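Can't attach files on this board, so I'm pasting raw text. These are the components:
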Amino acid sequence: MTDISVTCLQRLPIYLNYLKTLDGDGFISSGAIARALGMGEVLVRKDLAYTAAQGKSRVGYKKSELISALEDFLGCNNKENAVLIGAGGIGSALLAYGGFKNYGIELAAAFDSDDKKVGTEISGKPVFSMSQLKEKIKELGASLAVICVPASVAQTVADELCTCGVKAILNFAPVLLRVKDGVTVRNIDVAANLAILSSISVHKN
Amino acid sequence: MTDISVTCLQRLPIYLNYLKTLDGDGFISSGAIARALGMGEVLVRKDLAYTAAQGKSRVGYKKSELISALEDFLGCNNKENAVLIGAGGIGSALLAYGGFKNYGIELAAAFDSDDKKVGTEISGKPVFSMSQLKEKIKELGASLAVICVPASVAQTVADELCTCGVKAILNFAPVLLRVKDGVTVRNIDVAANLAILSSISVHKN
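---
Top answer:
Structure tokens for the assembled complex are below.
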């Protein structure tokens, strides 16, 4: 289990989302999944082997069992608290977004440096001051954090999160964060993603 | 130029963002960039070789020239129009976001199926009805689109965008979109990203 690659982990939600779109509860083979998603069959079979799902030769996986196995593997059936730092435009949109629940993640609280926001609720989630970060993260047992602050303060926030014992950070600020060993960071630089797309159409055609 | 990989394209904005944080305009070597970002020197040197920047042996690149070369390569100095479909929470946050301009991209218009939003402006960007999609995309010469609609209608929207001649789609809906050849899609499934992070801390430690 311990040698699963990040790229494989990235594909598991794709299989899960696809399986959920299918009606009924028949059997589905890794080949059928691969064809539907335009992926290689060997790759799909190897990826699914990381889960506890047991495929039967010739028929494949029972759909409901494969969904459960993927959900177990991705932690959808655990409940895990996450906190969000920076309740601005993107931050507020994420607080309103219901999709985290599908993966067993609860955005339980937000933190902001704006006194006008502190003490209020955004989409039912309390907004705390930055000085309450450590206390609240401990209280919630949160090991995940989402950074939506401006680029200029993102590293400072990441440093604080590391001292609070956060294990994984999803970073929307357009900077490369340095974190200590044992903390994982994923970057979502929306503007850079759009620029890359634009460059792909220029440089790859 | 035509064989540049997507993973290399993803790294170019990271170099660009890092260089912009540096004061002054001295020379910087690929080795110094690599060390600062915790990346391999050979990789950095190869990546930068895709741009028109000319490094000098022993001293490296003049910072301002390397920034210009990266910006040129990423199309930051072109102006390219993009449209956004689905002016809900994430969509509205993106319309308010100023960071696209750094890459020469202008989110010029939004489209929504909600009659209450059509005809209004969000962060100064006009919201049009879905029936105006083809006409407005042509008018704007937009080749990029951002999909922020619910998962259930994302494929239909992607199909429409393809018939409108859009060349690249940034997709925030948690579904795998099928598009015709010549159209590039990048997926940003925020909830899945957080779930993957969570799984990394469980399965890789």
